[in-house]
Amino acid sequence: MTPERPKKLLNKNFLLLIALSLTTSLGYSMISTLVSSYAVSFGAQISAAGVIAGIFSISALLCRPFGGFITDLMNKKWLCVLTTVSIALIMAAYSLCSNMWPLMAVRIFHGAVFGLNSTVNMALATEYIPEDRMGQGLGYYGLGQVLSQIIGPSIGSEIKNLFGYHTLFVTVSVITFLASVLLILAFPYDNAARKKTQEASRPRFTLNQLIAKECIFYALIAGLFSMSNGIVNSFLVLLGEEKGIANISLFFFTNAVMLFLLRLAAGRVTDRMKLLPIVNLSLITGALSMILIGKAPVLTVILAAAAIKAFGNVGGQISLQSACVKKVDAARIGVATSTYFIGADIGQGFGPVWGGKIAQTFGYPAVFYCMAAIFLAGTAAFTVYQLRHGVQAKTAPSPEQTL
């Protein structure tokens, strides 16, 4: 028998998972915008720094399908604890790097463990969200991650400027380890009913248990938003230095604040809207933000682009993630989650790689113009796909529909 979902959205366990998401995401946000500059401090070229930044997500991508299978098979709480402790150890390993090759190895291991950790965390959270409020629940769950984006980069930069990279990485390691302690001590998880479900239909090691084929296209479209994030994280600061735009890092603060505010309402809206218009509007908005960044002569335009980009990311990612979860039964939520993240990994991983090559040849603005073109191409592709497969589909079922 499948464990019964709670009827109340803001239940105790779900709120605890939001707090856990904030804690673990904070450490990641503190270093994510500094990895490229850390590599450059070793003497790495811009293109090599882009590879180091992107290899993280490529590694996560390769391990992600197995993460979905493992998540559906194992006790999610203890798998989450194990992967969180592993990330804490990997964060400490960053501080031991003295050139780009050890850093490359650490990034690969970090990406692999992160791929499993984020999959099990999200799958665990969906067990405590009512079926008919999945979009709203996913929106609230992401608040911890967004809040970490608001304060994480600033805290990370301040620690790096005052004490250096090594102190930064050790600090992040401690924060991440504390997240695992929080989960052990405060999160009750009864695995008995889940074991009965597994015994009734134990997943076998098949392609269908590695990738949810019905979610692949949605995952790839969602990956475009992650690709733009990777481009911005890797090249925005460098673009600002080239154009002489001071305080360009305020982009990350503005974008994160807007993400936080929009997520408070966006989930409820996506639960009621059809998928096609909300995703297309999000893609077009994403393209506009990239064009503004590429053309921006002053900081105010950069900040406007940050707000516009937040609007696109929230609508597109929440609606597509909710649609992926709704396409599978309860026993395959792990694989649906991992498939969704595969798209994010592809975008986040390959974005900085091709972005670095374009930047080296044509300059930083060209990177953002290319990303805008990719967004517009995605709009056309998504429209064709939805028209062929049912334009009436919504991001979440009506109360009369089953999961």
| Overall strand count | 0
Global morphology:
globular
Q: Work out the strand percent.
A: under 5%
Low-pLDDT stretches are 197-201, 392-403
The largest β sheet comes out as: none
Average pLDDT metric: 81
- Helix vs. strand class: mainly alpha
What is the terminal separation in angstroms?
Answer: 15 Å
Helix run count: 15
- Note the quaternary state here: single chain
- Helical amount: over 70%
Radius of gyration: 20 Å
Polypeptide structure, described:
By secondary structure, the protein is mostly helical. Helices cover 80% and strands 0% of the residues. It has helices spanning 12-32, 35-41, 46-73, 76-94, 100-126, 134-163, 165-186, 192-200, 207-210, 216-243, 250-270, 275-295, 299-326, 333-362, 364-389. The longest helix has 30 residues, at 134-163. It is globular and about 55 Å long. The two termini are 15 Å apart.
Q: Which SSEs are present, and which pair or pack?
A:
Layout: H1 12-32, H2 35-41, H3 46-73, H4 76-94, H5 100-126, H6 134-163, H7 165-186, H8 192-200, H9 207-210, H10 216-243, H11 250-270, H12 275-295, H13 299-326, H14 333-362, H15 364-389
Helix pairs in contact: 1-6, 1-7, 2-3, 3-5, 3-14, 4-5, 4-7, 5-14, 6-7, 6-11, 6-13, 10-12, 10-13, 10-14, 10-15, 11-13, 12-13, 12-15, 13-14, 14-15
What features would you highlight for this structure?
80% helix; disordered C terminus; mainly alpha; 15 helices; 403 residues
Task: State the gist of this model.
This protein is an all-alpha fold and 403 residues long. The protein has helices spanning 12-32, 35-41, 46-73, 76-94, 100-126, 134-163, 165-186, 192-200, 207-210, 216-243, 250-270, 275-295, 299-326, 333-362, 364-389.
